[in-house]
Design brief:
31 helices; 610 residues; Rossmann fold; single chain
Amino acid sequence: MDKKTLEINTAVEIAKKKYKQGDLVKASEIYKNLINKKIYTYDLLLSYGVFNMAIKNNLLAKKLFIFSIKKYPVFSKPYILLAEILSLENNFKEALKVLLAAQKIKNSNSEIEYNLSVLYKKMGLLKEALVSINEALKFSTSIDVYQVLKSDILIDMNENEEAKKLLLNLNIRKKNNLYFNKEILISKVYLNQKNYKKAESVLLKLKTLYSSQIALYLNLSNLYLKSKDLKKGIKVLLESIKRFPDFTPLKSNLALMYRNSGQLDLAVKTHLDIINKEKFNFNSYFELTTIYDFSDHQEQLNNLLNIDINQLSQIAKIYISFSKANIYHQKKDYQNSSYFLKIANDEKLKLQPSDLNKKLETGEYYRNLILKNTSNSGKIKDDNRFLFIVGMPRCGSTLLENILSLNSEVNDMGEVRFLEESLKEAEDLNKVRGIYKEKISNSNPLNKIHTDKNLFNFFYCPIICNYFPNAKIIHCFRNPFDNVFSIYKTNFLNQSFSSSLDDIAQLYKYHLELMNEYKSRYGSKIYSYDHDQVVQNPEESIRKLIKWLKWEWDPKYLSPEESKRNVFTASNAQVRKKINSQSLGYWQKYKNLLDPVSQSLLTCDSLIGS
């Protein structure tokens, strides 16, 4: 090493020391003087780049890492740090290119493989992420952070037991950030397994050690949201917001809990507080437009309507477009509402292609399944305590479940995936009912009437009718045009078919054909619940339903808005109102939008009630 290079590297060490001591001005001054000398050692470029990352000057940091890669291409660290910045900017494709280039230059490098795994996970490419972390572990099996990342990936892949084994075998000392991450992941495993008590126990123990960790409170609130214990959730969020008043995700969760518990005024107030501090918070704007008309907040409304969607990220563009569509709908400007609805859904389809074919394949698989039922109907006394509500989203099922929940014996489970999960886990179909009952018993008393409102359980009607003796199915439906439009208008996060009018119409027709076949096959086990008839003739329709259920009549069933239950669906604001027919025929305001599927939907009318 020559004398000048040695001097440069010595000065770099002084700059590092000044930075550690908190003297950013002096550190910056040293680095700038060294750069001006134009003797670009590897240590100088890397250290100055890291310094700029630390002070959030990522633009200069990127330039330094790119220059370092060109000048010293065999060193892997600048590639990794450049990819990290690109990833923070959501430029995942470029970040991946950088890491793959590093991989070619330095094969069998555990740090590169680890960072590739982190990136693949962010991109949702879980199989690739798992391959990369396994490669990293080949070279460095004892590195705990690699094992923690592998566990995190396995949890995302729903391999909870394998993840739990890995995590429980790690011996990481307490009061260490990695220990905190490990325990958070263990709580997620229990949460995924719906073992809410164990998940809560893990998090509350962590709270005694890490009371200043924001992520702890966020995970606690997510637990209470999933376990539907909103009272505890609201309490922990109010406590945590006092500690961290500027952390928006906590307030977003609080607003969601207020909404789900029917405290709409508090939900509105919380979202307004968020957008007053974050002018372009697209999630709060969207949530507000579903429950509030901005009548007393014209400035905030103008801010929303003036947002240029072309300047937004794809996710923000989707949410703001849905928000504008909702506002124009309230203003009865259906042309503009249609315009923004189409933009929102077209962008969603780019992000997540329709899952229609997968749904049709599921329906056909169970439709054609040769069932060998060995169950003896009538011997299992509690099976008539299961009520499966099936149909399409936005069919009026939340109102139906609200009506049913007024019976004190009913445990409204909402949109659980217990049946789908039980079918995946069962070695043979005779074990499905036992697994399903066990899932219910983990978080619900078994002596109740359980309503399962996973609407896509209509795929599994043959399983319910053959392996759940005396269980009842209620098929909920409404006018095809209103139903299809309502699905398209709703920002569903996990139903990607909902962004295509053609696919919604196709699935709507398919579900009617399938349910008509099952009604013919299973007769009185399936009840036809016409939402339109209920909102037009409540007493006659609801009396008929209660009689079919063999429940004692009570006038309270005519006042579902008085139900105090928590509601977790897109209809959680509407069901707080008295039964009304205001939404009937709303599709006619959007005839032009629905025109491409109108012929298909007209044929559905003949299928309803046939």
